Fold this sequence. Notes:
There is one protein chain. By secondary structure, this protein is an alpha/beta fold. It has one domain (7-71, 111-312): TIM Barrel. 45% of the residues lie in helices and 10% in strands. It has 14 helices and eight strands. An eight-stranded parallel beta sheet has the order 1-2-3-4-5-6-7-8. Helix 2 (47-57) runs parallel beside helix 13. The site of zinc ion has 4 residues, from loops.
Amino acid sequence: MPNPLIIDCHLHMYESQDLALWEKDNYEIWEYGDKAEVHSGRFAGDVGDALKALSEAGAAKAVAVNLFGLSPARQQAIAELPEGLTPTEERREIERIDESMGDRLKSFNEWACGVAKEHPEFVPFIAADPWVLPVEEMCDHIVDQVRHGGAKGIKLHGIIQQVHMSDRRMWPIYQTCVEEGISIIAHSGPARGPDQYAEPRAFADVLKAFPDLVLVLAHLGGGAWGQIRECADAYPQAYFDCSEILAWTGGTKAPSNLELARLIKEIGPHRVMMGSDFPWYDVDYSADWVMSLPVLSQSEKEGIVGANAERILRL
Ligand SMILES: [Zn+2]
């Protein structure tokens, strides 16, 4: 039997292993309840690690989701300030950091597109954030990165970015994606506070308003996976990735393997893609997990591990 095409539709890569480890340490995953043993990725997560993970998994490509969160980026920049500043100096430096966030977002995206030019295994999905740049400037930057940088999509994380997925400030960004023919991969899942920025229901207005937008709800709704059926039924153009949730099956608030396989079967396996959420989890582990699912046919599983991403994301 020939090996199926493997494409990871949800991989994070970092400029350095230190930065990757910092991100891993500062991202708490709570929504799936308790689980005795959760698979944990064996790599730190810089570019070299990501390449190794892909080759060890026999994967042809990965969508590099370049997520920029204003608040973590600001925190990181502040942590890097030299020691011994006076309070006035420190205040001035922080003001300078705040003024530089737009440029930081742009150069972060340029970095991801540059890595992808050097390593065609990576398909860059860039960051967009209406808090960081005026939306018009944000859209110009997206167009520039699509046309000159090779960006193929946008990555959003409503909770980290504190942007509701149906926030009207996002409309010009969504419109730009439709016009440029690029896709969106958006974190979906419950938030801890009262504002549900990114649960599947938060996507209803955008899916209604942009029927031509290719919009992927990552993690199959995560801890809010119970909302995925209604979303999939109402919006046939919604797509899904099974990253993260696959490692948590059996958790007290997560579906079992069987429940997850049944959910995928019901909403349509052709709408679901394998993602690893590397470096949190490994690429080979994620692909193997899909191939071991019950309920789904061999060809449905082969679609999920690679062919669906090629078609849905127009890679
Ligand atoms: Zn992710």
